[in-house]
Amino acid sequence: MFRQSYKVQERVIVFLFLLVPIGLLLAFTYYPATTLIYNSFTDWDGVSVKRWIGLTNYKQFFSDPSYYGVLFHNMAYFIIGLVQVGVALYFAFILNQKLKFSSTSKVILFMPYMINSVAVASILNYVFDNSVGAINVFLRSVGLDKLAVNWIANPGIVNYTFAFMSSWKYMGLLMVIFIGALNSIPNDIYEAADIDGASKYMTFRHITLPSIWSVIQLNLFLNLSGALATFEMTFSIYPAGSPLEMSETFVSKTIMSAFKYNQYGMASAMGVILVVFTSALVLLQYKIFSKGEK
Amino acid sequence: MKKRIALGLALLMLFSVMFSGCGGQTQTTETTANVSQQTTAAATTQAASTVNGKIVFMSHRIDLEDFLNSAAAKFHEKYPGAEVEMQTNKDYVNTLKVRISSGEAPDVFLYDASMLPPGQYLADTLIPLDDMGYTNETIKYYDSPDHTFNGKHYGLTMAMMVTGILAKKDTLTSAGITEYPKTLDELYAVADKLKAKGIPAFASMVKNNWPLNNWDTVTDSNITGSYDDYIKNMVNSDAPFTADSPIGKTMAFLRSMLKKGYFDKDMTSSDWDVVRKQMDTVGMLMLANYGIGALEGLKPDQIAFFPLPVDNKGTLLSTASKDYDYGIPKTSKNPDTAKAFIKFMLEESGFADALGEISSITDAKSTNPALLAFMNSNPKFYDQTVQDPNLQTEYTNIVNKAQFGNPDLYIAALLNKDDNLQPIFDKYNKKWADAKKLVNAK
User: Fold this and answer.
1) What is the pLDDT of residue B46?
2) What is the mean pLDDT of residues B236-255?
């Protein structure tokens, strides 16, 4: 074998080295993905034989409000996420200037991101508790009893509460990304604008925003895909499923279908739907926002 | 030179990957050959010499780790050549399912019909336990359709569960309660006394969802006819949930208790895992005997456990059902040790007493004072077991497809904004009908 030409030997070595990573890729990525798509056309219950049922799972998803209705819960996360992007940009802009405590503030605002989601959910669960939580106790003590609603048990509010918890955790990450982007804008442009007598607002709107437009798009993408895939908050606080399914998100509903009710076929279909849905929405968001690119 | 080393390494990696796959397979074929040899050799008595090696017992009782470890030590004393590793898991059901399907099941584990559906699958996954010498007379639920197939028994019930009301004795006595209630009116009187003391008469435990299964006792008291007929009606009906149905009556009962102020204020935060550690903060829990071992810091003689009065004629009702079954998978390498372990756990370990449950061994006498008091009050037992396995499977399939259980209905009734439960009935009837259609579509 060593008498073969150099070219052949090279090809053999490359082939052999590629075997292991490609093997792993096929085993752990492509095989499960293909099985998932196959399972979505069956009504597998996790143990018995898989029975092909065609598009029934998909039809059931789009016709049964207990399935597609959870997307409205996800919407709460998306809306609060948009606010979160704005807040992150605001903090990034302020803390990027040379203020006294900007470094300390950056660290404090980033720290929640390093805390595990389950821990965040546990901590904030106590803060939002209806009777003894810090928020309601404070509101009642200043006389704002009307505002002291049941943050976690009121079906109309609970999703926004969980979305806020999620945003509280991830805001630091978005802020840090923005700070990096802001630092990449060269200073001469600002100086030129200053010389020309531009106001702070005009500087922001015409210089800063366009320069970091692609990063804003990135953060909006993170927000959208995060809002569709979120589940940690509702799963940590209601691991057995929320009462009346009031705070189930798409992914937590998928988990309940699979592991509580043995509907693996349905859950696989939901997994496929999530991928398609996320891709479609991200593409749509990209098209909308790239029109704003100057 | 470098090329040769590189090539050699690549070949080595390639071959090691290939052979690691092969090794696993030969192991399993060896084990199945071993198991079939041992079961065909009719061994009626477990010779101590075959009880050796290490086995793994996995269970969901993370609250009984200390007891399990001391039981493991006793087992090792009895069979010095054998050793059992106790594993407990909070996410027991999911972990078990994954381990079974990947061939790594523990040598002995606990299961029920929702984890391992009865039928051919059971016979393919577990080994038969007929040679352990039990009969219908010596152990309860021996012929249960949950673990019987084609005349062979693939499981032994670990203990029996009975529903009832749990409370801390001190809490009751300090509220001025001297006797356990024998009628509904007496129950309301007890609840009023607790309410007067400022603690909720009943902890609803809505957050965990599963504890509300125990209110099925009220539903059972409303069922006329056999349980199989009741389930058959549900399976054949497109709108089984009505105000007159047994479940509907329970929902109305719960609402009447809610309006009397007997439940805790913040029901969705009511958590069993919190309440069981703080039994001073609540009055009664509608639970079952498995809670006796789980109330932290309370010994059985400090726990009050009594059956639920369901009317004013003195009927005390308790729903009896089987707890999990012991099973040994075909992939176990020490099935003899596993069988000896199950026998030990059933007869000698005092596991049922530690669980606070009634032992499945018919002649066993409970040493648990709370259980003794419960049995002495002579409750009527309702057996919530479906005798026809096909009916059970169909019912379970519809329930799983519809993705809700009885607790969801009870919770919906409790959290409803007014007494009009019809919207709840409509919603769940629709889910039931849709699920029925999907399950029956062949």
Assistant:
1) 44
2) 94
Residue B417, Cβ density class (10 Å: 0-12 exposed, 13-18 middle, ≥19 buried): exposed
Which phi and psi (to 5°) does residue B159 adopt? Answer: -170, 170
ipTM of the complex: 0.80
Q: Tell me the nearest-neighbour CA distance from B94 into chain A, angstroms.
A: 7
Residue B398 tokens read as: 């519809």
Convert the pLDDT of each residue in A165-183 to its tens digit. Answer: 999 999 999 999 999 998 8
d(CA B321, CA B27): 39
Q: Name the band, by pLDDT with cuts 50, 70 and 90, for residue B29.
A: very low
Cβ contacts (< 8 Å) between B97 and chain A: which residues?
A: 46-47
Say if residue B184 is exposed, middle or buried (CB neighbours under 10 Å; 0-12, 13-18, 19+): middle
Cβ partners under 8 Å of residue A15, min gap 6? none
From chain A, the residues in CB contact with B421 under 8 A are: none
Read off φ and ψ for residue A257, nearest 5 degrees. -60, -45
pLDDT at B336 exceeding the cut of 70: yes
Q: Work out the burial of residue A291: count CB atoms within 10 Å of its CB; fewer than 13 is exposed, 13-18 middle, 19 or more buried.
A: exposed
Cα(B279)–Cα(B296) distance, integer angstroms: 8
**Distance (Å, whole) CA B219 – CA B413:** 14
Separation of alpha carbons A259 and A45, rounded Å: 10
Close Cβ partners of A57 (under 8 Å, ≥ 6 residues apart)? A40, A41, A43, A265, A266, A268, A269
| E-state strands within A56-123 | none
Pick the residue of B269, B398, B416 with the most A CBs within 10 A to test the interface with A by mutation. B269
The answer to whether residue A148 scores a pLDDT higher than 80 is yes
Find the radius of gyration of the CA atoms of chain A: 25
B291 and B166 Cβ atoms separated by less than 8 Å: yes
* Euclidean distance between CA atoms A289 and A81, whole angstroms: 16
For the cut 60, the answer to whether the pLDDT of residue B47 exceeds it is: no
Strands B108-111 and B316-322: unpaired
Instruction: Give the model's pLDDT for residue A210.
Output: 84
DSSP letter (8 states) at residue B225: S
Residue from A66, A151, A255 whose CB has the most chain B CBs within 10 Å, to mutate = A66
Q: Can you tell me the distance from the alpha carbon of B266 to that of A37, in angstroms, rounded to the nearest whole number? A: 42
Residue B393 CA to residue A62 CA, distance in Å, equals 27
Give yes or no for a contact between B151 and B176, defined as CB atoms under 8 angstroms apart. no
- Using alpha carbons, select from B287, B292, B346 the residue that is nearest to residue B63: B292
**pLDDT beyond 80 at B241:** yes
pTM: 0.78
* Six-digit token string for A196: 């020309």
- The model's confidence at residue B43, banded by pLDDT at 50, 70 and 90, is very low
In this complex, the residue of B4, B209, B434 whose CB is nearest that of residue A240 is B209
Residue environment code for B274-289, b if the CB has 16+ CB neighbours within 10 A, otherwise e: ebbeebeebbbbbbbb
